[in-house]
Amino acid sequence: MIGRLHRMAYVPQPVRRVYIPKPGSDRQRPLGIPVLEDKLVQAGLSKILEAIYEEDFVEDSCGFRPGRSCDDALRVLGRTIERQGTQYVVEADIKAFCDNVDQDQLMGFLAHRVADKRVLRYIRRFLKAGIQEEGVYRASDRGPPQGGVISPLLANRYLHYTLELWFQRRFQPGCTGPARLIRYADDYVACFKHEADAKRFRIE
Length: 204
What we know:
Largest sheet: 4 strands, mixed
Shape: globular
Number of strands: 7
Helix content: 40-55%
Radius of gyration: 19 Å
Low-confidence stretches: none
């Protein structure tokens, strides 16, 4: 495997798709299961990306990062409500997030900080590896590979640009009072002091 990686000859296998019960719902959640070799390669890529990006992520991004957890996100939310005059909270879960991520846009975000073209090429290969479901192959043209070791970091990077930086640089400056966005994976809450800011956030 190491030799194939160095020669750029490593080709990821399609992810095997299974379905698991979705908590609190009658629906099922799709889950991808990569082969062992792909898990190992993705783990190595994740270590590289983590070293690059950890310093970039905003403080209130709590999901799938070293030393952070859902409990941290809840503590931040509690302090924000208690100490920053929060009167309105907008809660959101990005529907089918992994199925709708624009892969070309994601690769563009990664290229901002990753100079090694080989790393980018391997990430692209994992994105394009496809899905195997009940013996039928299907191409994957959107989203990171569900169930992949590298997927949470890729998702964090995508939402860092499309949600968190947008909130900090474009939305927050127009607020009439304190505003804060706290995210865990594809779930997030936005806290506001004034109703008008909360309503504008729901619209935008």
